[in-house]
Specification:
Elements (H helix, E strand, L loop, with lengths): L3 H15 E3 L6 E3 L4 H17 L7 H18 L7 E5 L7 E4 L3 E5 L3 H4 L2 H16 L2 H12 L13 H6 L14 H17 L6 H12 L14 H16 L15 H4 L2 H22 L3 H12 L3 H11 L3 H14 L3 H9 L4 H7 L4 H24 L10
Parallel strand pairs: 3-5
Antiparallel strand pairs: 1-2, 4-5
Helix pairs in contact: 3-5, 5-8, 8-10, 9-10, 12-13, 12-15, 12-18, 13-14, 13-15, 13-18, 15-16, 15-18
């Protein structure tokens, strides 16, 4: 056991080695995670979330998001980041996120709050600021200090701790708040970024007021990691003179964003329903310690032996929900599971994969719903049986 003097010396050394200064605000940060490692983990998490989301393909939405995003990215002046901007089709989700390395996703639900490209600059400035300020690195440092580890999870996707560090949730469409101080700092730097990008920072007051009206009934300020609406508005007003120093008005038309409802489609709705069930299976495995129940239900429904299910799923390095959907498509369409997996790994959408393999999304969703019922039944049977070790499960 270390003496108090030695422990104090180690702590002082860590502080000196890991202390960095936040851009614009000058706040000292303890950072025990290298930026390159932070970026690597961020891009892995981003691929995980985007792969299991419904991506919008509307050309106007993509063009405007990329135009605003690229202007904000130039203002951030991080050329080493590989900037990318995606739009996720979910009209109910009022969110956006940016992971280390410059990968950004915007949910269509936030279009109704942003309204136009200037409003979108408020949102993207805030999210890019989180990455620029390395708030994820601070979270990971805290996790390291607490000794809980940050390794990537294996077959099931990304470690939930990693996702939480990046403000993401394991469930599709969940974006978690950073700490109150980090959220406020992102507001501050986000104002500067949007101003440097040529957007009037005063627009932020209207955007956050609209956000507040959307979030009526939210947790009070002192119980929430987000600053309360009144606190946020007062802070923005205090930072406004600084942000306006960077703003150079431009004589150009500000484009309106398309409405979330106009961007939605029956196919996107069907894909979201499928993804909910895929995530439900993954959550059952994680929260109910239900790997055996899911694997046995799959073996029963597919008429395959249990070792085949377990080993194949591990080799594919996907969650049980994704594996069930891939195997379900092969079963329903009588297609090649190898070809279906190849399409999935190339980034094909679930609707395209289903269509290419003589199946339908609704049919697949119904099949997975039935699989979930079988899983519940198997789970109840396992709970009533005495424990027995099995060589078939890892």
């Amino acid at each position: 056991m270390l003496s108090k003097n030695v422990a104090a010396s180690v702590a002082a050394l860590l502080f000196v080695v890991g202390c960095v200064t936040a851009p614009y605000t000058g706040r000292g940060q303890l950072m025990l995670v290298s930026e390159s490692n932070e970026i690597e983990l961020g891009e892995e998490a981003y691929r995980h979330i985007v792969r299991d989301s419904v991506l919008a393909d509307n050309s106007d939405a993509l063009r405007i998001v990329r135009k605003v995003g690229e202007r904000i990215a130039r203002a951030a002046n991080k050329p080493e980041y590989r900037w990318e901007f995606r739009v996720i089709n979910d009209p109910q989700d009022i969110n956006a996120f940016c992971v280390p390395g410059g990968k950004v996703a915007v949910y269509t639900g936030i279009f109704s709050v942003a309204r136009d490209e200037a409003g979108l600059a408020v949102i993207l400035g805030h999210e890019v600021a989180h990455a620029l300020l390395r708030h994820s690195g601070e979270r990971m440092t805290q996790t390291q200090i607490l000794g809980t580890g940050l390794a990537l999870a294996g077959a099931g996707g990304v470690n939930p701790q990693i996702l939480q560090a990046f403000g993401l949730g394991a469930a599709v469409g969940v974006v978690l708040p950073f700490s109150r101080s980090q959220e406020s700092e992102a507001d501050h730097v986000g104002l500067i970024l949007m101003a440097k990008a040529g957007y009037d920072p005063r627009v932020s007051l209207d955007v956050w007021n609209r956000m507040e009206r959307k979030e009526k009934g939210a947790t009070p300020d002192f119980l929430s990691t987000h600053p309360g609406s009144e606190t946020r508005i007062q802070q923005l007003k205090a930072w406004m003179p600084e942000a306006l120093q960077y703003y150079q008005p431009e004589d150009r038309v500000v484009e309106l964003l398309p409405s979330p409802q106009a961007l939605d489609s029956p196919t996107a709705k069907s894909e979201r329903e499928l993804l909910k069930r895929i995530q439900a299976i993954n959550q059952f495995v994680e929260q109910q310690n239900g790997e055996r129940a899911v694997a046995e239900a799959l073996a029963y429904e597919l008429r395959l032996n249990l070792p085949t299910i377990v080993n194949e799923r591990q080799q594919l390095k996907v969650g049980y929900g994704q594996y069930a959907a891939l195997r379900g498509l092969a079963y329903l369409g009588r297609g090649s599971v190898r070809n279906i997996v190849a399409e999935y790994q190339r980034g094909g959408s679930w609707s395209a994969i289903a269509q290419n393999n003589a199946s339908g999304l609704n049919e697949l969703t119904a099949w997975i719903t039935n699989l979930m019922r079988t899983t519940s039944s198997v789970g109840r049977q396992l709970r009533t049986q005495p424990y027995r070790a099995s060589p078939r499960m890892p």
